[in-house]
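Consider the tokenized backbone below.
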């Protein structure tokens, strides 16, 4: 008795999932699909957009995706769950890739530097970074830049660096 009810419930859930693959806004915004007919005494709301949809950026400082596994924000926020979403009211955090490149280089005198994120429990596992080479060495977790004081003249003579030298 119970397996038949379970099968019926599974079939019903599959049918419901198929019904909600397209949102109402998407249906009515296409020109070849007519709006539902109005019955006598029934009020309907026209949800046809009057203005073209604004382009949704990934972040205020990044227009495109920065990872192959990332969905564009316009595709990721679709479906019945986001039907009533106004993207102008949604938070858009800055991309960390551009913010970390504003961090100044930490000049050190040691050949090997330890980085743990500096946040205590909110940091990351401690790793050791080699600063022997005449280049800016970055932490693989948080992206903080380190450079050996011995290589300062060489790094300052470069026309451009990805981190500010201070």
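A designed sequence for it:
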């Amino acid at each position: 008795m119970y397996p038949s009810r379970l099968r019926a419930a599974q079939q019903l859930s599959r049918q419901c999932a198929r019904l909600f693959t397209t949102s109402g806004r998407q249906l009515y915004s296409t020109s070849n699909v007519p709006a539902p007919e109005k019955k006598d005494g029934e009020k309907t709301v026209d949800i046809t957009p009057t203005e073209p949809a604004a382009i949704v950026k990934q972040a205020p400082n990044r227009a495109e995706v920065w990872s192959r596994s990332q969905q564009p924000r316009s595709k990721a926020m679709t479906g019945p769950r986001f039907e009533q979403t106004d993207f102008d009211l949604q938070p858009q955090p800055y991309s960390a890739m551009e913010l970390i490149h504003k961090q100044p280089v930490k000049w050190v005198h040691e050949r090997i530097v330890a980085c743990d994120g500096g946040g205590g429990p909110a940091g990351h596992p401690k790793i050791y970074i080699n600063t022997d080479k005449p280049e800016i060495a970055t932490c693989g977790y948080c992206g903080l830049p380190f450079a050996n004081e011995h290589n300062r003249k060489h790094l300052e003579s470069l026309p451009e660096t990805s981190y500010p030298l201070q």
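The longest helix spans residues 2-19.
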